[in-house]
Amino acid sequence: MGKVYVFDHPLIQHKLTIIRDKETGTKEFRELVDEVSTLMAFEITRDLPLQEVKIQTPVCEANAKTLAGKKLGIVPILRAGIGMVDGILKLIPAAKVGHVGLYRDPATLKPVEYYVKLPSDVEERDFIVVDPMLATGGSATEAIHSLKKRGAQNIKFMCLVAAPEGVEVLQEDHPDVDIYIAALDEKLNEKGYIVPGLGDAGDRLFGTK
Question: Which residues take part in binding uracil (predicted)?
Fold first, then answer.
């Protein structure tokens, strides 16, 4: 079963509180999502492999450590996931960015894939799928299915806030995927919104209704 990591870092929690506030405007909301994504990326990359190299400092030759060439990919779920990408790229600018677009079928209420664009070397990359919210778990589950059927083998999922219901669904459908979240909220309401949540992340990021 995939592990669930809840980040309790004070800076993440402080910024998340402002993100939740309904009075926070589009500009500040977008900036804070970017900042929290950077802080979360710092934690989610903690287990990246290192290799030892020799370098020449201004003082002497030294043994030092550098990333061991692990290929990474970031895959936002359209559209709200886009708001998290730049924050991650600040720390790992060499990562490739793919995209997965989903819409909800009005009859079945199930997510349907309408767009997928991934790096050509899918099998060789570790992917981080990002979306600000994990509510019912349907979109996250389908996005990860989209990656797997194209050859992705190592996938992590990262979001700001999650409902227990969504975490359970994602763990059941993808027990090999670890989940990284800034906050595990109370529940879903009757409309499928996370409580207390942060509203509609896409609308708040892009100023739409």
Answer: 194, 199-201
